[in-house]
Amino acid sequence: MPQPTPFHPRTHARCSSYAWKHWAGYYAVCHYDESPEREYSALRAGAGLLDVTPLYKYDVSGADAGAFLDFVLSKPVSALKQDRVTYLCWTDDDGRIIDDGTCWRLGERRWRLTSASPSLFWLARHAVTFGDVHLADVSHRVAALALQGPTSREVLAQICDADLDRLRFFGLTTAAFEPGFHGTITRTGYTGDLGYEIWVDNAHALHLWDALMERGKHRGIWPIGLDVLDIARIEAGFVLQGCDYHSVFDAAIPAQTSSPLELGLGWTVKLDRDPFIGQAALTREREQGSAWAFVGLDIDWEETEKLYAAHDLPPALPTAAWRTPVPVYRGARQVGRATSGAWSPILKKNLALASVMAEVAAPGTVIDIEVTVEWARCRVPATVTPLPFFDPPRKRA
Q1: What is the pLDDT, as a whole number, of residue 281?
Q2: Which of 278, 288, 339, 358 is the most buried (most CB within 10 A)?
Q3: What is the architecture, at CATH level 2, of domain 8-51+139-224?
């Protein structure tokens, strides 16, 4: 049975759609209104407020914690400067992804790891081979909100004493909040926009929500659900576990797994260092080249209109992102699958993320994506496009 997050009294009161889903054992809002349009507008023109408490959070400490994390993660974090955050992944011995997430440097011997799915058993399995390593699952003690969008800095500055102008992209800081509690701010997010994630003890969750909503009401703040987050992360070209890739532990067969290099996450892998899990397999793959590549697709809108017009219908696209694998072709040959997609309101384009054979992954390559109209399987051209689709300068400014 899912449980409510510490923010549930506020999210439940606003969720007139009654559209909920289960996320890591919690109730999570899909969209608050009948349509996610108002939430999307807030995210891209004002500030969207999203409950991200269900993320898993593990604190790792001890004299050998840095060496341990270097061994289990795709990049070394022992050299990560204090008060910095990095994005990375972790793999099995075959270099296939288990999960992706962030790692924070909290102190000389303290880190925090966030993940989409439970990873404590994997961490504990390998921690026993190191000396002084302490693992603490703080997932159920720490509440978190993502405040994302162009006015997010202005809103957050109204309720805390942090110097947000000096907080760099992927930085973290502790702060005092009104009305008298402390928490941590990371300049991170999953929307591809300017944004922050705020982490507080559960007891302060409602105070944080109320302060943000009150101070942000003249700066375009609005609560957003997972449907809008899904559109935003596709625009940003961010992968989603269980959709764009499957964890090794969830895959039924090896063909359902992926390596970081195949998912465009090669930049999160540092091979030239002390041994780590998956190093040998990933080194071979980098030398030989990956068979698959993760790309963006810009689906031809004019051809889509023509396809529907042939059936005397207007184009029909869902208001939410889709996550059903869709075949893509080059000529008569299937060359991969689109893994998720959405109509981008800000770019006015029909977009998809796709896993394709490396031979058709070059930007500008035109392939076909399957589109079903009136139960007929048809095809529409789609152009391979570099990711991200949407990358505003304000994200890092």
Answers
A1: 98
A2: 278
A3: 2-Layer Sandwich (3.30)
